[in-house]
Automatic annotation (TrEMBL):
Chain ranges passing through the membrane: 35-55, 67-87, 93-113
Name this protein carries in UniProt: Uncharacterized protein
Domain of life, per lineage: Bacteria
Annotated keywords: Membrane, Transmembrane, Transmembrane helix
Length: 119
């Protein structure tokens, strides 16, 4: 039995752009469309949803382990940018952890990826 290596290259540029974009897209919406500022208290949750959507978009042509790894990179970049901008408060750290999970979940959810057990 031969084990073939799985390619799991992560598109770094696209992941960085998606992570930063997910973190700042709601701010741009508040600037361009002032009535959307009414949902400003929910911007942390909006950033979570945008991170999941961005991870889904970046991983659309990926397969295997590259899907989860790319989602992890998108989530980590988005969380890092959020921590840099908002500071290191308790709620910010909780949202950063959820943002990393949202990146992986957004990339993996609904793809039908299952583990193979050829035992």
């Amino acid at each position: 039995m031969t084990i073939l290596p799985a390619t799991s290259k992560v598109p770094v540029g696209a992941a960085l752009l998606a992570g930063v974009g997910a973190q700042f897209a709601d701010d741009v919406a508040y600037f361009l469309l002032p009535p959307t500022a009414l949902v400003a208290p929910l911007s942390g949750l909006i950033a979570l949803l945008l991170t999941a959507a961005a991870a889904r978009v970046v991983t659309r042509n990926r397969t295997g382990a590259a899907v989860a790894r790319t989602g992890l990179v998108v989530g980590a970049v988005s969380a890092g940018v959020g921590l840099f901008v908002a500071g290191l408060g308790f709620l910010t750290l909780v949202l950063a952890g959820l943002t990393v999970l949202a990146g992986v979940a957004g990339a993996v959810a609904g793809r039908g990826l299952t583990s193979r057990a050829d035992i």
